[in-house]
User: What shape does this take?
Amino acid sequence: MKLFKRTNDIKEIINKFKRNNLSIGFIPTMGALHNGHLKLILECKKKCDVTVSSIFVNPTQFNDKNDFNKYPRTTEKDLEALLNTGCDILFLPSEKDIYPSENDKNYPLGALEQVFEGAFRPGHFQGVCQVVDRLFKNISPDEVFFGQKDYQQCMVINKLLKTDPSFEKINMNIVPTVRETDGLAMSSRNLRLSSEERKIAPVIYETLQKVKQNLKPGDLTNLTDEAKHRLAEAGLVPDYFSIAHAETLVQINNWNGKDPLVALVAAFLGKIRLIDNLTLTN
Ligand code: AMP
Assistant: This one.
């Protein structure tokens, strides 16, 4: 695995690969890598000649400075994990390299950034677009790989790919959420749960599954109220537990039995905010 810290250096090697007609797959991450991230690397390796990953804890996507400061940084371990998984190139830029000047661009995300994560984390998706925009322009990937764990983020990236003509040829791959054996979605934030909290956390996935089992056409309010109640009883404080159209993320309170649905949840367990989701109609 080759490691690059500067944009100019990574651009140079990417150009060399392109001249040799090699396909480039890219997986952006914020590090503290777990098997969820590594699954994206493995999927990329199946499809592309060269697998490029990046680790950059992006300050502009954190609306809570404390969350940014406390975000786990485990670079040495990450390097080993990437090496063992067969990642070819790691980009480890500095903040100056990614943001050499003021970033004041506004990305037209419309309603997508006004709901769920967008509503509870103002500016989060603008920050995600800022960093992804810069990374994509440096790496010029053919294929990009994102986790379904961050369902709304996948939709935001799809929108970015559609609205910026320079990304026209990039193909998006959404990789299913990798879970612990007890169902908890793998997340770098799980590292910050106490052992008591860690025992409680699987209730999130259990609740999502229950909703899927009990889904029926008609009014969905009881179903989501019960889900919120179940989470609260276990000691979680939900920001939201909602059922939405799986393609538009418009909240659905009354289901016609046909629209594709996804259940989305964000909840605090102590000080740690966890998110998860489950598609309900496939
Ligand atoms: P992050 O480092 O949290 O920015 O995540 C980097 C990428 O890994 C994003 O595309 C995430 O959606 C994806 N990811 C994180 N956790 C998981 C998981 N449990 N399963 C699959 N993909 C994941």
